[in-house]
Specification:
By secondary structure, this protein is of the alpha/beta class. It has one domain: Rossmann fold. It is built from seven helices and seven strands. It has a five-stranded parallel beta sheet, with helices on both faces. It has a two-stranded antiparallel sheet with strand order 2-3.
Amino acid sequence: LSKGRTLKALDGVSFQLKQGETFGLVGESGCGKSTLGKVLMRLYEPTDGEALYEGKSLHHLSKKESFDFNRQMQMVFQDPYSSLNPRLSVKDIMLEPMEIHQLYGSQKKRIARVKELLEAVGLSYDFATRYPHEFSGGQRQRIGIARALALAPKFIVADEPISALDVSVQAQVVNLLKKLQKEEGLTFLFIAHDLSMVKYISDRIGVMYLG
């Protein structure tokens, strides 16, 4: 780029998500899909435009609204190897957000919820005392999904959740997301570059090209 020029990662993107649907966002690598997901999660601040959630601008929330928002919207990250704290056991990884938001009333109920969520993603509670390095990529991604569900969110951004996984594991994770979406009534933004997988999981699809 010449001096003084800026590159817009996102330009003129506009879409709506309906409650309870999976909206697939597909496009080649580098087109801005993950950037968009991180804007919605408030990990990036937009230089222009607005992202609205239930009619409110995500980037103009009060402190209390921000706290509530952080519980209602969660993200499943692309890399299951770097998205989990290596120093915490699986149980502590899942308990931490519950304790911050003071959910489920007591520690006993929180631990019961950890067990319930691990079983929901196809893992035994026996794994709860283990650490991330002891799991395969597919198992780590299941733990990441369980962690995202720990706060009982309404909306989940799944940012390339299967791209780092073996092909044999990808379908398992996508089927798990479909199952959980129906059972929990979740709204998903499913980001990927594999159109066939996006078509399989999504109710509607948007295509991004160069932002």
